[in-house]
Amino acid sequence: MFTNVYSPLEKLNHTRLNELWVKRDDQIDPYISGNKWRKLKYNLARARDLQKTHLVTFGGAFSNHLVATAAAAARTGFKATAFVRGEVVDNEMLLLCRLYGMDLRFTDRLSYKDKEALFQKYFGNNPDTFFIDEGGAGADAVSGCAEIVSELPEDVSHLFCAAGTGTTAAGLLSGIKTADSKTVLHVIPVLKGAGFIRDEILKYCDLEGQLVVHNDYHFGGYAKTQPELLQFMKTFIADTGMLIDPVYTAKLFYAIDDLSDRGALKPDEKIVALHTGGLLGIWGMKNELRSIY
Ligand SMILES: *Cc1c(COP(=O)(O)O)cnc(C)c1O
């Protein structure tokens, strides 16, 4: 299943930017969405090489990574267990995880902090299990994300992506380095106080001169929003016909729009925005979204 990827590059109409393109990783799969597919690819390959049969991973109750892992496991014949951060809850995303056969174990926030210890405690004696970090983070995820760059044209001036942990961004920067390309990578952290992201990315790839981190587009922090962002999202989706999510990609496209407004992006430069998927995040913010109509 990880061989043929469908992720077209589509041009977007923009009032000021004549060469704005979107790499549609959201089209790869509705549930193994976007960068989560890229991040899981080599993790699953490794699990299979090691003859493991049971994936064990971690995430919050609205985690795109959990749904992606559950779907990928079911399609490739792995069992899957997830430690879910916090008290017992139910929502659309956890329901999908269950439908895909994932075993959910709600875990208090303190125990959740030490994922290795949790894994050891419950699965340390089980030789069939394979540990996948929260969000799929790690070197295998970076390798998977680096491949995105090889699917892009060589003359891209600016490549944009949203960031949580920065693993996807690290992969893109590695891909740029491998291709010996002049593309500048622009990263939009969705967390507040994400000063650590730059160092996190540079841990995997030292191409410092081609990395720009824009720390002012978090709108209050992770899974936080503001009326201005919701209004932007509403107009954007109706105008382009392309769905974006409130947690990651709305902040990404808002940033591109704002930077072009400020003259930081020139009208004829080739710009690619990576659509990392995550559209199920709409259900995590359905009340806020309903409030704008
Ligand atoms: C998980 C996720 C990200 C963040 O990826 P990182 O590699 O953790 O930076 C970005 N966009 C979407 C849609 C996601 O689901």
TrEMBL record:
Gene3D superfamilies: 3.40.50.1100
Tryptophan synthase beta chain-like PALP domain sequence ranges: 8-277
Regions that span the bilayer: none
Known cofactor(s): pyridoxal 5'-phosphate
Keywords assigned: Pyridoxal phosphate
Superkingdom of this protein's organism: Bacteria
Statement: the UniProt record of this protein carries the keyword Plastid: no
Residues bearing the modification N6-(pyridoxal phosphate)lysine: K36
InterPro entries for the chain: ACCD_DCysDesulf, TrpB-like_PALP, TrpB-like_PALP_sf
Active site, per annotation: S63
GO MF terms held by the record: D-cysteine desulfhydrase activity
Similarity comment: family membership: Belongs to the ACC deaminase/D-cysteine desulfhydrase family.
Protein name per the record: 1-aminocyclopropane-1-carboxylate deaminase
